Amino acid sequence: MKLEMKLPCPKSEAIESYEILLAVCRAEDAYLAVGYKQMRDLLERICRAQMQNESLQMTDLSARISFVAAKVGLSVAEQNRLHTFRLTSNAILNRQQEPNREQLLRDAKTLAFFIRKLLEEDIPLELYRLLPRADATYLVAPPARERVQRMRVCFQYADEQYLYVTPLDEVSEKPYLVRYNIPQINEEFAETCKLLWRHAQVNLLDVAVDEAGILTPSFIVLEPDYLLDISSLAECFRDYGHHPANYFLSRLQPIENARPLLLGNIANLFLDEWIYAKSEDIDYRTCMQKAFRRYPIELAACSDLRDKEKERQFFDDCKLHFDHIRETVNDTFHAAGYELDKTDAVLEPSYICEALGLQGRLDYMQRDMSSFIEMKSGKADEYAIRGKVEPKENNKVQMLLYQAVLQYSMGMDHRKVKAYLLYTRYPLLYPSRPSWAMVRRVIDLRNRIVADEYGVQLRNSLEYTAQKLEEINASTLNERGLKGRFWETYLRPSIDNFQSKLKALSPLEKNYFYAVYNFITKELYTSKSGDVDYEGRTGAASLWLSTLAEKCEAGEIIYDLRIKENHAADEHKAGLTFSFFKKEKPGETLLNESAVNDITRDKAIGNDITGNEVFASKTVRSEALETETSLPNFRQGDAIILYERNRDTDNVTNKMVFKGNIDYLTENEIGIRLRATQQNPSVLPAESLYAIEHDTMDTTFRSMYQGLYIYLSARKERRDLLLSQRPPRFDESLDPMISRSEDDFTRIALKAKAAQDYFLLIGPPGTGKTSCALKKMVETFHADKDAQILLLSYTNRAVDEICKSLASIAPAVDFIRVGSELSCDEAYRGHLIENELSSCNRRSEVYERIRNCRIIVGTVAAISGKPELFRLKHFDVAIIDEATQILEPQLLGILCARGEDGKDAIDKFVLIGDHKQLPAVVQQNTEQSAIYDESLLSIGLTNLKDSLFERLYRNCTATVQRILSSSEQSSPLEQSYSSFAAHRSYDMLCRQGRMHPKVALFANRAFYGGRLIPVGLPHQIESSDTICRLAFYPSVPEKAGASAKINYSEARIVADLAARIYEDHQADFDESRTLGIITPYRSQIALIKKEIESLGIPALNRILVDTVERFQGSERDVIIYSFCVNYPYQLKFLSNLTEEEGVLIDRKLNVALTRARKQMFITGVSELLERNPLYKSLLKLIESF
CA–CA separation, 932 vs 226, rounded Å? Predict the structure, then answer.
């Protein structure tokens, strides 16, 4: 069954858009808000469609409107009408304004005329008659003659005197004029103003507006939705200067696990302990035991501590800092003028300041924000004169930025906030003095960094990136012209080291470095700005840019939470339990008997149903507000941010933020584990309401950048292997054993053992790649008494599966898991490194325990975050499961790591995966991540969204084809040997034990060339004479204008099927094994769950209803798949396409169809699904049964 990559032409985009507007205009008054959401989505889609081939990053709809307006030549009046609609929809979707029909028709007309101009298709008469005759008016708000604290604008152009900008929060017929380069007001932003580009988003702060309406801001903040970390920005201020290239060098360089870093981490632990202490004294030894539990690998691997004398000095220093912190907290806090009260303190509060484009976390803050402390364990600037000690410039900058954040985010007058630097070395509690001119200089540096990031991701050019990275050199960074021994010995070498490593690379290696650097930078920019396909998540900036309705629909917020139990002061497991505070809402029922025509209930699943029987379903009612069908997209272990939300205007940019993880989540309550214990639990008031949203952390990107730097330092032989400049090597002496293998798993384990560089294993669905193949490999490698094994996977859930396989090995094998308690299955928490080392009291004991354990397990992220591990252990093999879900740059740091002896930290690696199942999540689109450089294309690197597994597999199969082609003239025996030799580097599992052959039929034929063979387990050889294995139940689309992400008829069909499956399996129904339901949208999941709840069958309420992404790696006896496609445009979001040998492969459909063991039932709108050739083939196959 070969399916060529050809898609039919969709219905006219204009006609589809007009149909949505027509339905919106006819909506009942109760559903005007839904209409506004549909129109907003429509405008977003249209604007994004016009920008598909652009590399521009725009975080806000306003900037996209301005871009499209310039592209197609909209008049000022036409632009302003669109902006009026944008502002109105913002207010309605954030519940700040009630919609009315007059406004809705006005805005519908604006969109209709915009579509007509853009797509050159006349407005249908049916719609035109509903639109108001008068032109849509728009609101123009001239600037007031006053001082404005902040204003968001979109830059258009500049001359020598003014910047010309358009406001985002109001509508203006003419650009606003902004004075810049004004001495003592904003002259610090001269460099920023040279870097502005058209449509750039800019925040103007402390704006003076004169009589002519001309603006003079004190601050000009470029692309404020791109947040920089305060500590990273402050670290740019070095003894030798503060060039932006310092930021990029620091991001690339791995943090050295040296004595000062360890001392700083342990000093932070001491501060927490002394703040938490109930008495005047705490035990030093107990605190150090906690340090051993928290930093075991770091302490064991620190080379500075190998020397006994240095180790003794280190622990003496720890005791000194411990005593100094005690003195500060117990005595200095109470001294006159300090006004610090540890019993009313907040530890590690976080702040997100969209006004300044910054984010950060403080060590200590008084609850009323009147004072805060940032602690440093290193040296201050020490002067010979009178023993004078002054804070270092980077530390001062950090304090200034926190003061600015408190002013612009929290409304605190910076002159009334007392800021202290605590140097625990002396001790010194130093009061920081504000300097707003210095803050402006720092924000200008921030803007220059953001402009550089924007330029790299926009151009996506190897040459441009090479030019930018050339700025990382000693002559450029040494702006102050330092000379002498200190500069030459301690400062210059780390700068020169980067350039010397980069220049030593071959042209191919350099191009690879620049291409990967571009990819990571583009991905980072996209993850922050949120400029992704509108159907997906919208990045970190969505925390303040997305409307409440959008967050609810995506399940990205849980709000109206009330504290049920407050354990924030618990020393070991600080946490909170929240209950859902229910507000009365009209229209609680989502589905009722009149909403959906009753589906005939006389058909049974299993023995009595046939493939030709389908449900009869007529037009259904589809109006529902998004909040009624929202379902939280949160799971146990998810990183979250928590903040007070008592009003709709409260959000992460104006509230103190606490970070933590979800401990558990039920229908009635949610448990949160806080990262920082709060000495005073009342910092989280019981009477307040709270919200949680997902935390977006930059740690993954930092690991990828550091992995690139490690690639620079890798052995040439390893770089050659990864870039296919040499073939993988094998121990040919094992060939006879491999050819005589008694089963697939033995053959694969022997091939993995024979591989001296790498081995690839393709594991299609149900073939036992983790439970059997990985286990057999571990047993084979572990039989060698000296072998050291590293086991990795992408997700914690997959690592749990690896642990399950290890636990089943007899005799038992010893292993340690690197990770956290919340992300580890309870059954394997005893193997967590902190628990394995809980009895260790000396560094040498930690060292020996880790060295003597032969198997280390963890996620790629966890191991990447512990590079010190490779200074402790050399691994003979790394086996990486889920390898097709791991991006190439995520593995670079691990595969290129070197041990203390300079050799490869990992001798060889095994990659296990299936490139025909779901790939790694990438936010940039395929065109942006594509490779065009010929030298990189020649090594099989076509797109960086593909995994290393895919690239190496493509190269291996290409090698096989070349060998077979060149050996056509050889004898059959020689051809056979050549083929065998070429296949040494990879293999494929073909015997699947999950699906009944009829359930597997379509995926097997369409995606695996019919190579999957059933193992012959009892459920696979059952007769299908009386059981329907695969069936399709047609649904009807929601009427135009309704939410695209729900389908009432499908929800009813699914619930009806679930009830009958339960009836047929009532005796042995297992909610975790019998039935699962897959659907693409959170709203449809919620709708299905509500409908199932109405059945009154408790067991069905506990089954998994989720997206296909969440189902990967799972299986059920019966799977029901609700496509939930109401409009043709949704088809492209429903697929995840790849191609192999001219055959189209839908990875998302493949995963969905291969979750079922015995039966697979599908529901969807057939006339829409048949527009996709794969879905059409699937429906034809089902009809033929």
Answer: 28
- Residue 343's identity, in one-letter code, is T
Residue 1121 main-chain phi, psi, to 5 deg: -115, 115
CB atoms within 10 A of CB 351: 24
> 730: which DSSP letter?
B
At which residue do the structure tokens 């070969």 appear?
2
| pLDDT exceeds cutoff 60 at 628 | no
Give the DSSP letter string of 926-944: HHHHB---HHHHTTT--BT
**DSSP labels for 456-514?**
HHHH--HHHHHHHHTT-SHHHH-TT---SHHIIIIIHHHHHHHHHHHHTS-HHHHHHHH
Closest C-alpha to 777, from 790, 794, 796, 793 = 790
What angle (nearest 5°) sits at the alpha carbon of residue 627, between those of residues 621 and 633? 115
**How far is the CA of 1148 from the CAs of 918, 1116, 1163, in angstroms?**
6, 17, 16
d(CA 591, CA 1046): 12
Q: What tens digit of pLDDT does each residue of 146-199 get?
A: 789 999 999 999 998 999 999 998 888 889 999 999 888 999 999 999 999 999
Give the model confidence (pLDDT) of 1029-1070 as tens digits.
Answer: 999 999 999 887 778 889 999 999 999 999 999 999 999 999
Residue type, 711: Y
End-to-end CA distance of the chain: 17
User: CA torsion sign, 1156 to 1160 to 1163 to 1164?
Assistant: positive
- 1047: closest CA among 1100, 1091, 1012? 1091
SS (H, E, C) 303-326: HHHCCHHHHHHHHHHHHHHHHHHH
* Six token digits for residue 154: 């979109």
- pTM score: 0.89
Mean pLDDT of the region 486-515: 94
Residue 477 to residue 646: CA distance in whole angstroms: 47
Contact present, 144 and 134 (Cβ < 8 Å): no
What is the token pair recorded at 797? Answer: 């859930």
Contact 653/644 with Cβ under 8 angstroms?
no
Q: Chain centroid to CA 362: how far? A: 24
Which residues are CB-contacts of 781 (< 8 A; sequence separation ≥ 6)? 752, 753, 787, 789, 876, 877
Q: Can you tell me the distance from the alpha carbon of 1118 to that of 269, in angstroms, rounded to the nearest whole number?
A: 51
Least confidently predicted of 99-108, 325-334, 689-698, 798-807: 689-698
Q: What is the mean pLDDT of residues 419-441?
A: 89
Strand pairing class (557-567; 689-694): antiparallel
Res. 120 pLDDT band, cuts 50 70 90: confident
Nearest to 950 by CA among 878, 891, 867: 891
**H-helix segments, 906-1020:** 926-929, 934-937, 948-966, 972-982, 997-1008
Kindly give the interhelix angle for 492-503 and 699-713, rounded to the nearest 10 degrees.
70
Buried b (16+ CB within 10 A) or exposed e, 532-550: beebebbbbbbbebbbbbb
- Residue 460, phi then psi, degrees to nearest 5: 50, 45
Structure tokens at 630: 């929202």
